[in-house]
């Protein structure tokens, strides 16, 4: 059992899917949460009844200046940041081939999946360093480990996230800060619902357990990764793929 009483967590993409499930679990286990998303209505509906424990900030997290002021706002309100979970992500256009990929779409996917995770981690690290404690979790994907055909932008951006995790894990290993990633296969969320059926079938057919992961399974593993108990693993990409990746 983990207990997040007295801890402050920032979750991006908290209005939907994995981010929402992880934020709710951390809230229920006593954490104060800073919630970053551009879906104002969903943030309001999900978190307005936790006024003392939560601070919702509506922003486009691909804007570094807005990320910096959001982190300042949360520090001002709660006084510390122990945990960062980067969940906001998009697939971009999928079910296509590399010679047909638009550079514009590739840039857009990298801007959110990779750059925004860099912006948030850069912004929280000074206060984690000052406290000699921190837990950062970047949500990557099995696509970043294996490369899903038809998903160049998404797979490459998630591989970049895995690379950043390895770098950051080593850089802060002596500062009480762990930086890990999580690589899910398919979990039914609005992100998956928006993808072409053929692309989703390609991904789910590869899962040995012959089922999708659940949000509860994702939230359970994510909260363990950002807990105090997870103290000797850093720079690592945890698997959540029903047996697809055994490395
Ligand atoms: N669902 C899966 O099967 C799966 C598998 C592997 C990895 N992932 C990763 O998990 C993470 C969460 O995915 P999900 O399925 O929960 O997605 P989702 O679409 O349900 O949620 C993503 C959230 O990010 C927010 N968001 C998107 N762009 C934003 C921006 N520019 N600024 C602020 N907020 C923004 C959206 O409003 C939404 O609330 C993503 O990084 C995704 O790549 C998901």
From TrEMBL:
- Name the enzyme group at the top EC level: oxidoreductase
Query: Care to name a GO molecular-function term for this sequence?
Result: oxidoreductase activity
Where on the tree of life does the source sit, at the highest rank? Bacteria
What keywords tag this UniProt record?
Oxidoreductase
One GO biological process this protein is involved in is: monocarboxylic acid metabolic process
**EC identifiers of the protein:** 1.1.1.401
Which PROSITE patterns does the entry link to?
ADH_SHORT
Alphabetical list of InterPro entries matching this protein: NAD(P)-bd_dom_sf (IPR036291), Sc_DH/Rdtase_CS (IPR020904), SDR (IPR050259), SDR_fam (IPR002347)
Q: Which family does it belong to?
A: Belongs to the short-chain dehydrogenases/reductases (SDR) family.
Annotated PANTHER family: 3-OXOACYL-(ACYL-CARRIER-PROTEIN) REDUCTASE, 3-OXOACYL-[ACYL-CARRIER-PROTEIN] REDUCTASE FABG
What is this protein identified as? 2-dehydro-3-deoxy-L-rhamnonate dehydrogenase (NAD(+))
Organism the protein comes from:
Dyadobacter helix
């Amino acid at each position: 059992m983990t207990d997040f009483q007295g801890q402050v967590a920032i979750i991006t993409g908290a209005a939907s899917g994995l981010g929402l499930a992880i934020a709710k679990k951390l809230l229920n286990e006593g954490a104060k949460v800073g919630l970053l998303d551009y879906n104002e209505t969903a943030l309001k509906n999900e978190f307005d009844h936790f006024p003392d424990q939560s601070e919702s900030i509506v922003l486009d997290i691909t804007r570094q200046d807005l990320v910096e002021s959001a982190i300042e706002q949360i520090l001002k309100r709660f006084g510390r940041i122990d945990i960062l979970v980067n969940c906001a992500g998009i697939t971009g256009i999928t079910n296509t081939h590399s010679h047909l990929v638009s550079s514009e779409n590739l840039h857009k996917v990298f801007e959110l999946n990779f750059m925004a995770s860099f912006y948030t981690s850069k912004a929280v690290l000074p206060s984690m360093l000052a406290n000699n404690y921190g837990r950062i979790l970047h949500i990557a994907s099995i696509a970043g480990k294996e490369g899903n055909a038809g998903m160049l932008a998404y797979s490459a951006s998630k591989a970049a996230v895995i690379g950043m995790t390895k770098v950051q894990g080593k850089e802060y290993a002596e500062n009480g800060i762990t930086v890990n990633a999580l690589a899910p296969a398919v979990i039914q969320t609005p992100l998956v619902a928006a993808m072409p059926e053929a692309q989703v079938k390609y991904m789910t057919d590869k899962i040995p357990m012959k089922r999708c992961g659940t949000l509860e399974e994702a939230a359970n593993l994510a909260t363990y990764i950002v807990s105090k108990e997870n103290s000797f693993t850093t720079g690592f990409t945890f698997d959540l793929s029903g047996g697809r990746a055994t490395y």
